[in-house]
Amino acid sequence: MKIGVISDTHNVLRDDVLIYLKECDYIIHAGDVCKEEIIERLNEIANTFVVRGNNDKFEGLPDYLELEMNELLIYVVHDKKDIPKHVDNFDLVIYGHSHKYEYEVKDGVVYLNPGGCGRRRFSLSLTMAIVTIEDKEIKVTRINLED
């Protein structure tokens, strides 16, 4: 199973992002979508899960999600500071907000910020991630995007 993981699109869906997402079974967006039309477009590609970012002003988005996929538990929130202290029962924690790619495994939990793939922020790279889950094993691939 492949999951496209994106964040901080801020009303921008780049063509290269869409190409990668078309290969995925699911999409997880860690917030700052900004317009509902972006979610509708993503759902045309694959079943999409989205959390509220600090710039998302429309109704209907949860502050966090707890998902189960291929027997793995996934926690999704926009801002790293809002991750609960005890997430050791999750296999993967996804967050965004900083526009900076981060990947870390701590106490058996994979923490992933796919970075921003909308508008460039400061001098940060535009990035996203593909998470492949096979036999309960999580493989994260960083995708560096062009301007």
UniProtKB/TrEMBL annotation:
Keyword vocabulary terms for this entry: Metal-binding
GO molecular function: hydrolase activity; metal ion binding
InterPro entries: Calcineurin-like_PHP_lpxH, Metallo-depent_PP-like, MetalloPDE_YfcE-like, Phosphodiesterase_MJ0936/Vps29
EC number annotated for this UniProt entry: 3.1.4.-
Domain named Calcineurin-like phosphoesterase: residues: 1-136
Transmembrane segments: none
Record's keyword annotation contains Cell inner membrane: no
Essential cofactor(s): a divalent metal cation
Superkingdom of origin organism: Bacteria
Xref: PANTHER family: METALLOPHOSPHOESTERASE (PTHR43165), PHOSPHODIESTERASE MJ0936 (PTHR43165:SF1)
Family per similarity comment: Belongs to the metallophosphoesterase superfamily. YfcE family.
Record-given protein name: Phosphoesterase
Source organism (scientific name): Turicibacter bilis
